[in-house]
Task: inverse folding
């Protein structure tokens, strides 16, 4: 059969190409453009090369924000993933109780982010908030508007409350997809509950856990709205995370060049971490070949 | 290894069963002899898997007792019954190597590592998995995975029986044959008790010494493949076993002959006498292999129209019409068929009568 050379089929890819260009490539290139030029006006700009990158990388405030951010994402993953798995394991398997539990668990996910911030802002207030007053009544001094540690802890607890349900729901779905035969075979093989979890449930959850870890890492690493509403980044800079730092830089101070340079670094950091997580989870606990 | 007895077993998945239809498994008594190869054969939903799961302990029966060598194990969980079970879809622990998969049941029972290694080696050799021992189990083909499932049963020396729940469903046809032979070989070598659930009669008849035919939660016949073929005790066994199944014709008695429409089919006199004593709705049954076709009239022959002749390569299936009912006749490849009519002969030694579905036995 003679092959007919006809490349017009490439036109069918064009709509996707145009969409991706406008949604991702052009905005990204604009940011690259800003990062290497100092722009004073529409017709007045100077090429500065890597100057903004060097400047941003030497910024001490940014180093602190980055450390804070890494620590925050670390704790978010460390708490939310195991907690989500535990909740998924504890949920009833079938019946009306299962439906009820799923709806109750999903509730935090339905609340808009700035409302979550507002809820916790009031909930945690030491003078009138339910949680704040309760904790103080227990004899523990707690004031998130004044104490950096308290503020930091409040943001973390709020994130756990808001997003653990996502991990739990994903894991619940993953657990339900395991055929009964696996559990039956494990019983016949005399496996303990721990062995069932370690050798059946956890490996079968690999796929959903991958999604959960990546989503939670990206979202927590880019967290903005909730801490902005809750603490506004304070007290001091104790809850100023990277995206808030970036917003202040770009919108507050209108330093578009450094902000663009930092955006690119931010983007690369997330990409790097996602790649690491992906590679590690994909190969974790697997026998060779 | 053990002799497995089921005493007065019945099971329902409903909390408060009332009618017989509520039971997935209706009352049955059965003994599985030590070292036997049994097949449980029946259509989907007949209770085969329920019965298997009761033996392995995955299901606790609503009624009755399960005895292993006379010991009551009804309340024991599967891990304490020393039963191995192979499921329809291969169950392997996919993060482990083949070696670790095979060692898993032993390690769970805290067997020493030296013995684990020896047993796994032995079983791997038996199943021809030695080359894959160091490899990850998840990368293997379905037949190798099913061998691992079987191997996890075989590594335990003391297993009472190995249960198979349609284990070859996901295996390619040519590998099915090899795997079945392997199983047969292992059975002959080690005299393990095997119980094999299937809805495939070829699988059941080639695998087992004894076949249990089930329908609607009841056992209708337990017998050798030959007995099921030659002497089905129930019309269901007649048409479920054999390809094509038994010809079944509703009939009346007339002296020592069966009357189907306007035709008289001669019967053995003692069979006719017994049938008239038993009474009930009578059905005449004969296997297509035993029904004879003749181009000329013979004494006792019945005239029939020929509807279709299918040539299946090394034999022919003729469909004949007798008083509006279709009959299948299995003919040798070289058989000559003249025109679209002929004569059918029902050899009395192969002609069976069923009263309300149950066989009428001439010698009763």
Result:
């Amino acid at each position: 059969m003679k092959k007919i050379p006809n490349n017009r089929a490439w036109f069918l890819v064009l709509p996707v190409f145009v969409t991706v260009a406008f949604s991702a490539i052009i905005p990204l290139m604009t940011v690259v453009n800003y990062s290497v030029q100092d722009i004073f006006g529409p017709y007045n700009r100077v090429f500065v090369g890597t100057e903004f990158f060097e400047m941003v990388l030497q910024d001490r405030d940014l180093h602190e924000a980055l450390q804070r951010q890494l620590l925050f994402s670390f704790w978010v993953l460390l708490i939310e993933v195991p907690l989500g798995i535990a909740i998924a394991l504890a949920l009833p398997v079938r019946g009306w109780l299962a439906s009820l539990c799923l709806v109750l668990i999903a509730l935090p996910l339905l609340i808009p982010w700035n409302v979550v911030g507002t809820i916790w802002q009031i909930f945690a207030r030491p003078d009138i908030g339910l949680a704040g007053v309760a904790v103080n009544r227990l004899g523990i001094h707690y004031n998130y508007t004044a104490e950096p540690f308290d503020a930091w802890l409040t943001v973390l607890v709020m994130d756990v409350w808001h997003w653990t349900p996502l991990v739990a729901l994903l894991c619940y779905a993953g657990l339900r997809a395991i055929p009964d035969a696996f559990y039956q075979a494990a019983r016949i093989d005399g496996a303990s509950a721990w062995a069932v979890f370690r050798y059946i449930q956890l490996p079968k959850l690999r796929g959903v856990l991958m999604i959960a870890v990546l989503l939670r890492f990206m979202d927590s690493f880019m967290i903005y709205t909730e801490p902005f509403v809750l603490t506004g980044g304070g007290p001091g800079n104790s809850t100023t995370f990277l995206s808030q730092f970036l917003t202040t830089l770009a919108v507050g101070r209108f330093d578009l060049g450094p902000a663009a340079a930092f955006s690119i670094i931010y983007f690369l950091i997330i990409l790097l971490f996602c790649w690491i997580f992906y590679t590690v989870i994909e190969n974790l606990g697997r026998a060779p070949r | 290894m053990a002799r497995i007895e089921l005493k007065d077993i019945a099971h329902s998945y409903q909390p408060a069963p009332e009618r017989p239809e509520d039971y997935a498994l209706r009352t049955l008594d059965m003994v599985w002899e030590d070292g036997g190869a049994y097949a449980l054969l029946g259509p989907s939903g007949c209770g085969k898997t329920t019965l298997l799961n009761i033996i392995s302990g995955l299901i606790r029966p609503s009624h009755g007792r399960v005895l292993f060598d006379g010991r009551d194990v009804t309340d024991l969980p599967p891990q304490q019954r020393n039963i191995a079970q192979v499921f329809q879809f291969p169950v392997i622990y996919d993060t482990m190597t083949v070696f670790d998969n095979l060692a898993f049941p032993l390690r769970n029972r805290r067997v020493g590592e030296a013995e684990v290694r020896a047993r796994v080696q032995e079983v791997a050799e038996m199943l021809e998995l030695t080359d894959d021992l160091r490899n990850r189990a998840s990368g293997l083909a379905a037949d190798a995975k099913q061998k691992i499932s079987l191997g996890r049963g075989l590594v335990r020396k003391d297993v009472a029986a190995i249960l198979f729940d349609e284990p070859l469903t996901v295996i390619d046809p040519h590998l099915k044959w090899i795997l079945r032979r392997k199983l047969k070989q292992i059975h002959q070598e080690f005299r393990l008790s095997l119980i094999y659930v299937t809805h495939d009669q070829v699988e059941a008849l080639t695998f087992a010494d004894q076949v249990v035919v089930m329908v609607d939660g009841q056992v209708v016949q337990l017998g050798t493949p030959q007995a099921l073929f030659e002497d089905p005790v129930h019309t269901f066994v007649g048409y479920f076993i054999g390809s094509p199944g038994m010809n079944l014709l509703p009939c009346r008695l007339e002296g020592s002959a069966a009357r189907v429409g306007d035709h008289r089919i001669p019967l053995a006199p003692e069979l006719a006498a017994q049938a008239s004593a038993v009474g009930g709705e009578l059905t005449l049954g004969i296997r297509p292999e035993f029904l004879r076709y003749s181009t000329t009239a013979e004494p006792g022959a019945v005239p029939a129209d020929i509807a279709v002749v299918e040539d299946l390569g090394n034999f022919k299936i003729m469909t004949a019409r007798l008083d509006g009912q279709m009959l299948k006749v299995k003919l040798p490849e070289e058989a000559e068929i003249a025109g679209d009519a002929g004569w059918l002969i029902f050899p009395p030694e192969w002609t069976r009568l069923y009263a309300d579905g149950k066989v009428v036995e001439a010698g009763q």
In short: Chain B has two domains: 4-239, 246-359.
